[in-house]
Amino acid sequence: MTSTEFPKLSAAIERWPIAGAFTISRGARTEAVLVVATVSQGDHVGRGECVPYPRYGETPEATLKALAAMQRELAKGLDRQSLQRAMPAGAARNALDCALLDLEAKAAGKRAWALLGRPAPRPCITAFTISLGTPAAMAAATEAAAHRPLLKIKLGGDGDGARISAVRKAAPRTELIVDANEAWTPDNLEQNLAACAEAGVTLVEQPLPAGQDEALARIKRPVEVCADESVHDRASLAALRGRYDAVNIKLDKTGGLTEALTMAEAAHALGFEIMIGCMVATSLAMAPAMLIAHQARFVDLDGPLLLARDRDGGLRYDGSLIYPPEAALWG
């Protein structure tokens, strides 16, 4: 077999405007900067999308460089299994892992879940995110989204009690989960958790900074707590026991669907509930994550709903109900 018979890899940076602004404790953004990996072989093309995240030291330019370095490995026969050893977990590996699986599915004429021996994804309810702001601004945004069954509320530290109280008044019957994005401290942890419990919040995501979350093991938690920045792949799970009740699995952290599927099983074995999450991205990034949704207590795949527009042929959203991808999009 000659090298020309092996897959060819290309990658590109894409910029997608966000509807309004997306604001969390670390700041606001008005566009999503993505990297799309494309792997072609003969008449078949596979794609994968990732979001390089500065929080983890990633940039779009470095992601392109990391992907370009894999072309030589692909010519040597790199597949998804060997990819797990060839690249570290992170956004770049996610894009290539998902592109390779998409290519496998297209070449075999099968859906990705059939190739993997997994159940076909079903329509499911996704959370919808309310950005961080003043209590009044968040209440207004919540009121506009109060028809949705599950809202994810971004909090940011000081004043969070007033924020979550205002949100609850604006959506008295909606299930609420909260994401503090590492903004709380050991000093205000119990106060903020109590405010969330008072508001009937179901889950609080990453209240303390990763690596500084020991206080979670020392208190009685009135609301279940989910790890996000503190968890990446299987190797990070064991250290979370006693501190967290759930883990947020994101393909950009695990380095792709291959690791994410195994991680979900390992997390359940350790007694963790699962959230399947996302960055702000198009439907191409959400589609592979749909294969884990049936295992998750919480599905948070609203990235395309936060954009000014989605990719052509994207996932179908009916309100908060998200449908599995068509083969033309991915898998």
What does this structure look like?
Helix 6 runs parallel beside helix 7. This protein has two domains: 107 residues, Enolase-like, domain 1 (2-Layer Sandwich), CATH 3.30.390; 199 residues, Enolase-like C-terminal domain (TIM Barrel), CATH 3.20.20. The chain has 331 residues and is α/β, with parallel strands linked by helices. The strands form three sheets. Strands 5-6-7-8-9-10-11-12 form an eight-stranded parallel beta sheet. Strands 1-2-3 form a three-stranded antiparallel beta sheet.
Percent strand equals: 15-25%
Number of strands: 14
Give me the CATH architecture of the largest domain, please.
Alpha-Beta Barrel
Query: Residue ranges: pLDDT <50 for 5 or more in a row?
Result: none
Figure out the total of helices: 11
CATH topology of the largest domain: TIM Barrel
What's the end-to-end separation, in Å? 26 Å
- Provide the succession of SSEs: EEEHHHHHEEHEHEHEEEHHEHEEE
Q: Give the overall form.
A: globular
> What profile does the largest beta sheet have?
8 strands, parallel
Physical arrangement of strands within the biggest beta sheet: 5-6-7-8-9-10-11-12
Radius of gyration equals: 20 Å
Q: Structural class given helices, strands, pairing?
A: alpha/beta
| CATH homolog superfamily of the largest domain | Enolase-like C-terminal domain
Integer average pLDDT: 95
Q: Please, how many domains?
A: 2
Secondary structure: helix percent: 25-40%
CATH first level of the largest domain: which class?
A: Alpha Beta
